[in-house]
Amino acid sequence: MGKPVLKQPRQSYGAESATKREPLTLDGATGSPVPTPPRKRGKHIKLSSVSDVAEELARLYRQARAGEVETSDASRLAYMLNMLGGLLASVRLEARIQQLEQLIEDED
């Protein structure tokens, strides 16, 4: 008995499969590729405070309820916003603690 013959090529799990490729559109008359227009970037959202994050989370909730955003996408984004809100609160708390420690050192 010889080696078994693979009917399908092995799937690559390297960098090639990790990159997403845009579908190629061909011009019907010439057969040449048509350039893909650049994606529109979303509006820059200010997320520099916990209240900014809360407002964005509320906006995301309303969009998900209205069906403008897939609930699975909204869930992932809400998780990230929650993490960002926690980080911002921690950074602010750390700064306040450092200020208090500096005040105590200055009094001594």
Structural features, described:
It is a single chain. A two-stranded antiparallel ribbon has the order 1-2. A hairpin with a 6-residue loop joins β1 (25-26) and β2 (33-34). It is elongated and about 85 Å long. Residues 10-18 have low confidence and may be disordered. It is 53% helix and 4% strand. It has a domain at 47-108. With 108 residues, it is mainly alpha-helical. The chain has helices at 15-18, 50-65, 71-107; strands at 25-26, 33-34. The protein contains 3 helices and 2 strands; from the N terminus they run αββαα.
Taking pLDDT < 50 over at least 5 consecutive residues as the criterion, the unreliable ranges are 10-18
Characterize the main sheet. Answer: 2 strands, antiparallel
Which strand-content bin applies to the residues? Answer: under 5%
Number of helices: 3
* Mean pLDDT over the full residue set: 83
Query: What is the chain-wise order of helices and strands?
Result: HEEHH
* Rounded Rg: 26 Å
Secondary structure: helix percent: 40-55%
Give the tally of β-strands: 2
Q: Which strand order do you get reading across the main beta sheet?
A: 1-2
Shape field: elongated
First-to-last CA distance: 88 Å
Secondary structural class: mainly alpha
Blueprint of the fold:
Blueprint: H1 15-18, E1 25-26, E2 33-34, H2 50-65, H3 71-107
Antiparallel strand pairs: 1-2
Helix pairs in contact: 2-3
Kindly list the characteristics that best describe this protein.
two-stranded antiparallel ribbon, elongated, 2 strands, 3 helices, 108 residues, mainly alpha
Brief summary:
This protein has 108 residues and is mainly α. The protein has 3 helices and 2 strands, in the order H-E-E-H-H.
